[in-house]
Amino acid sequence: MLSSSVRRGSDAAGFITGLFLAALPTALAFVVVGSVLRAPLPELARQVLAGLAALVFVLREFNVLKFPLLQNARLVPQFVAMTPFWGSVQFGAEMGTGMRTYSPTGLPHIMALCLLLLGSWSDALLAGTGFALGRALMLLTFLLARDKAAADKAFDFALPELKPLFVLASVPLVFVLVVLR
């Protein structure tokens, strides 16, 4: 998971700041790019495409379909420890884009596709905030844990059991974005 260098006080604050500084503009960029992509498509076609994409990723989450996610799975870089606050801000920003490191789930991909095909400015602000909060929540959980190694181990073992709950929690959000337009 995250190395101890990002778990220290100011480093954690920098990391979380970086998450928000990148997640919000990234989500807004999906809407901007999407406005060009969706121009030639009628709304029903965009809804069907978003719904099918969501279904594919949900089936992947339940291991019905197996395919790799687009991601750049790398560990916490050395510059985080060498530049205490700003290294963490930079790494948080890289993770806030969703393009930097390992992602155990395809759920953010569903949101990205929904933003591309159907998203509004307010949807982007909510999605960016939610993505940053989700990534920050993991770090905050570790900060509160007394035994960091046990917390890492608990996440590794609990993730397969938590995945279906996260998928079920995302269904109403996707339904609102795709169907209730």
Question: How are the elements arranged and paired?
Answer:
Elements: H1 4-7, H2 9-37, H3 43-61, H4 79-82, H5 84-96, H6 107-118, H7 121-144, H8 148-178
Helix pairs in contact: 2-5, 2-6, 2-7, 3-6, 3-8, 6-8, 7-8
Classification by helices and strands: mainly alpha
User: What's the tally of helices?
Assistant: 8
Strand content: under 5%
> Could you tell me how far the N terminus lies from the C terminus, measured between alpha carbons in angstroms?
38 Å
How many extended strands? 0
User: Helical percent range?
Assistant: over 70%
Radius of gyration based on Cα positions: 17 Å
Q: What's the overall geometry?
A: globular
Q: Which residues form runs of ≥5 with pLDDT under 50?
A: 1-5
How would a textbook summarize the main sheet? none
Q: Mean of the pLDDT scores?
A: 84
Which sequence of SSEs, written as H and E, runs from N to C? HHHHHHHH
Describe the structure.
75% of the residues lie in helices and 0% in strands. It is globular and about 50 Å long. Mean pLDDT is 84; it is low at 1-5. It has helices at residues 4-7, 9-37, 43-61, 79-82, 84-96, 107-118, 121-144, 148-178. The chain has 8 helices and no strands. With 181 residues, it is mainly α.
List descriptors.
181 residues; mainly alpha; 75% helix; 0% strand; disordered N terminus
